[in-house]
Write a structure and sequence with these properties.
globular, about 130 residues, mainly alpha
Length: about 130
């Protein structure tokens, strides 16, 4: 978000720039609840990136997977990837936040969903 300052460690700025760049693109085409969800997901991802900057490689890897899942959302065009909805990205971000003990970030995501099975690794969640 413009005007928001993030104290980032080296290496995390790349992930935050990816999130911000993708969000800027989404702002051009999304409106209403979809845009609000994209904004919330971007905020949660930025927070996860910053909070895991000094964490284990495994934790940073989970966050990196969530960022890439959000950023690589593509529309179906011929043989390219099929549509990956924001709600699917939300499930991945939700799962990563739970696994990293950042339940404070979940309040920012849409409520009313049943809790996901935290026993499934993030990588497996991407395959479903």
């Amino acid at each position: 978000m413009a005007g928001e300052q993030w104290n980032v460690e080296p290496g995390t700025d790349v992930l935050i720039r990816k999130v911000d760049s993708h969000l800027a693109t989404l702002r051009g085409g999304l409106h209403g609840p979809e845009l609000e969800l994209a904004e919330r997901l971007a905020h949660c991802l930025r927070e996860l990136v910053v909070s895991t900057a000094q964490a284990s490689a495994a934790d940073r890897g989970q966050v990196r997977v969530a960022v890439h899942y959000f950023v690589l959302r593509r529309e179906s065009r011929g043989r390219l990837l099929s549509v990956r909805s924001l709600s699917a990205a939300e499930r991945v971000v939700d799962k990563v936040a739970r696994q990293l003990g950042r339940v404070d970030l979940l309040a920012e995501l849409a409520s009313g969903r049943p809790a996901s099975d935290d026993a499934v690794p993030v990588g497996d969640a991407l395959l479903h």
